[in-house]
Amino acid sequence: MTKKVCVITGSSSGIGAASAILFARHGWDVCVNYSREREPAEKVAAACRAHGADVLVERADVSDDAQCVTLAARVKERFGRCDTLVNNAGTTKFVDLKDLDGLDAADFQRIYAVNVIGPFQMTRAFAPLLRAGSGAAVVNVSSIAPLLGGGSSIAYIASKGGLNALTLVLARVLGPTIRVNVVAPGMVDSPWLRNGLGPERFEAMLRNYQSASALETLVSPEDVAETVYYLGAIAAKTTGEIHVVDGGRRLGR
Ligand SMILES: NC(=O)c1ccc[n+]([C@@H]2O[C@H](COP(=O)([O-])OP(=O)(O)OC[C@H]3O[C@@H](n4cnc5c(N)ncnc54)[C@H](OP(=O)(O)O)[C@@H]3O)[C@@H](O)[C@H]2O)c1
């Protein structure tokens, strides 16, 4: 039987890496993508190959349309198909929400370029390959930030709200052949937050998050990957949905 193929942007680390390994464990071939450092991507690829996956490791910055188009061409050339696209790559600038002067238009434009325009460009570039198969899916990795009105910066929160809206309209226009959904993680223990906040602020935020969550826990990249896999491979009748994975943070205690 021909194996299914998943393309996951930003899969050299964190949620994307855990998702790539999970798809490989389920018997899929995988394209691992990164924009800067190849070595971590090669490590993820080795972990996927250990599960029997054929892996393509490709550098592409999702904010650059030409690189998205080239990535789709490379996937077509190597695998001849794409069954699931996971738009996971994201960026932010850590700025206190009350510091309105801490962000300028260039910050918004850089963050939107990766978090909103990137998923649009990737989906457009992969749409022909996705449409060519059956049961294709796009999973956009957003955040609970726009649902809470809280997060690493106002620009980040607004960009993820934009990604949620993009998901709804794409679910409408790409149906009936392609399903499009969001996974919205809460605070995830990944290099993103540890590096972005620094160890002291990270530990403080961790304690706050746990005490405010019904399940009293952070979410791991592997927890989020389970839902990425569910929406990307299993949920055949689900489209245009925002699936929260936050340990009960929105519910509270
Ligand atoms: N961590 C959290 O608490 C949390 C919570 C909610 C939502 N999220 C979302 O989850 C997603 C993944 O976050 P994470 O915590 O797993 O982050 P991470 O560990 O920092 O990984 C980010 C990945 O994205 C890649 N990347 C960054 N910019 C890129 C670009 N322009 N084009 C292609 N790849 C790019 C990075 O590789 P290179 O550095 O080589 O480019 C890396 O592979 C993001 O969309 C984030 O907004 C995270």
The percentage helix is 40-55%
Determine the number of helices (DSSP H or I, runs of at least 4 residues).
9
- CATH superfamily, by name, is NAD(P)-binding Rossmann-like Domain
- Structural class, by secondary structure, is alpha/beta
| CATH A-level architecture | 3-Layer(aba) Sandwich
Give the distinct bound molecules.
Answer: NADP nicotinamide-adenine-dinucleotide phosphate
H and E order: EHEHEHEHEHHEHHHE
Low-confidence stretches: none
- At the fold tier of CATH, the topology name is Rossmann fold
Top CATH class: Alpha Beta
- Averaged pLDDT, please? 96
Q: How many beta-strand elements?
A: 7
- Number of self-contained structural domains: 1
Main sheet overview? 7 strands, parallel
Distance separating the two termini: 48 Å
Shape: globular
Please, could you describe this protein's structure?
The chain is an alpha/beta fold and 253 residues long. The chain has a single domain, classed as NAD(P)-binding Rossmann-like Domain (Rossmann fold). 50% of the residues lie in helices and 15% in strands. The chain is built from 9 helices and 7 strands. The protein has helices at 14-25, 38-49, 65-79, 105-132, 145-148, 154-174, 191-197, 199-212, 221-234; strands at residues 5-8, 29-34, 55-59, 84-87, 136-141, 178-185, 242-245. A 7-stranded parallel β-sheet has the order 3-2-1-4-5-6-7, with helices on both faces. The longest helix is centred in the middle third of the chain and has 28 residues, at 105-132. The protein is globular and about 50 Å long. The termini are far apart.
